[in-house]
Amino acid sequence: MKSFKQKIIYATISILILVIVVNIYRKINNINKDIKRFTAFYAVPGDKITDRNRIKNAITQKIGAEINEEWLNNKTPEEKIQSMIELGKYPDFIDGGDATQALIDANALVPLEDYIDKYPNIKGYLSESDWRKLTDKDGHIYIIPQFGIVKGEDKSTIHKGEAFWIQKEVLKWDNYPNIKTLDEYFDLIERYKDAHPTINGEETIGFQILTYDWRMFCLENPPQFLAGYPNDGGAIVNPDTLEAKIYSDIPEAKMYFKKLNEVYNKGLIESETFTLSYNQYLEKLSTGAVLGMVDQYWQFESSDIELLQKGLNNRRWIPLALTIDESVTPNYYNYMVVNSSRGIGITKSCEDIDGAMKVINDLLDPEILILRNWGEKNIDYMIDENGEFYRTDEQRENSLDNKWILNNMCYYQYLPMYKGILEDGINAVVPWEQPREFYENLGTSDREILDSYGYETFNDFIPKVDYDVAPWYPIYSFSDNLSVDTPAGIAKQKMTEIKRNYLPRIIMSSIDDFEDNWDKYIYELRSNVNINEYEKALTNEVKRRVKEYSD
């Protein structure tokens, strides 16, 4: 039995504990009351980070706001955005991807031009000419781009744009040849596949083609590169006449698809490549058995990192700037330009527009950019006596571990950021563009590859073209947003349907049937599509941009 005195002591202790708990709860609750919470949706697949994410919580405490991010799952961007439009309910922030124009047409996005000057980091994020490029035909600015912005110096070490990719091991096997043409590329792949019918127990795949949904550009747009044009996407543009023309029936297009038909019949391309979903395509790449493909790096970056994590660095890919023949100057270099058709918008469902703009402004602050990209000092990166950021071996390993990243890093990668150099003038904004970090992450085999070609980074495999980026570039920022209610938009939609229907069949046909199938395809394009309206709309836009954006 407890004495009366003991009961008093226990009761007093219990009350004290209760008071402490209540005070702690009140403090936490008061902190939480000060935190503004926003929602965001991005019309691309992505991984949701955990609520206990260390860097997200650190950013939240510094800027007084957090963003709950949602990603596209099991629907196309058009389907998801259309369902939001029908309900009239949206997250605070939204990137509509290919359906961005649909959001603008539905008056779902808030005009931002009256807010920009109030937030210095946002105003200084783009040049005056770039802000003009973002101005819609009604005079409003609805989106802020997240990509293609460089401050100081472009420090890219990896080619992020489109290229013909080939496995490192294939280049090593052939004693590091200098591959410049389409014929040389497929000759090497064929010889390697014949010598290595399987890789790590998987059947070797010579060439993979992504055709799923809007990502079909991997199938249909290589002819523009093979002919020496930059990635204008929607058309090729004559720089002298400013005329925009489709590239579907240029000589290089026929030569390209004839080559694909030839290598398909040799077994270098699987028929199922034309039916794979995007995730299935990534799964194929992640086996390490795919020797080559045409793609933009950002689309398969997750598979590239997965191979590295598996210890299959030699099965990752090197970009090649191929042309039809050596007389053509390759034009694959990924110039950092603003895509005026894509970006993050604030919706009419947002109840605190100024607060949302402040979030974007704060996320562009140098201190927060370091948190987003490097993490926390002495935990995720170190600083040497010269002020240069670097990582230890353990920190580098963590930065490649997806599970660790989801709990510890918060890139807010679909909210505005820039690359290049931080305000300190020493460090790269992103770790993989820091020369020291890039070199330390290289294994012996990678150093051997770069030394064999006389390069410092893998971006050097793509030669720079010595000319100013054209004021209209890229014209796909216009063609991607053509309304289906216009003659040009209808023409584009029909062209896409015809390409999706004909090109896989052309590739998979017998060699003897190629000419006949190709003629049918071109006839279908030219007779059933009002190509003139499409080309006229793009030409008018090219000339408008040259007039308005030329310095």
Write the layout of secondary structure elements.
Layout: H1 4-34, E1 36-42, H2 54-63, E2 65-71, H3 77-87, E3 93-95, H4 100-105, H5 113-116, H6 120-123, H7 128-133, E4 150-151, E5 162-167, H8 168-173, H9 182-195, E6 198-199, E7 202-203, E8 205-208, H10 217-220, H11 222-226, E9 236-237, E10 244-245, H12 251-265, H13 278-286, E11 290-296, H14 297-309, E12 317-320, E13 345-346, H15 353-363, H16 366-373, E14 382-383, E15 389-390, H17 393-399, H18 402-408, E16 419-420, H19 435-441, H20 444-453, H21 476-479, H22 487-508, H23 514-528, H24 531-549
Parallel strand pairs: 1-2, 1-3, 4-16, 8-11
Antiparallel strand pairs: 3-13, 5-11, 5-12, 6-7, 9-10, 14-15
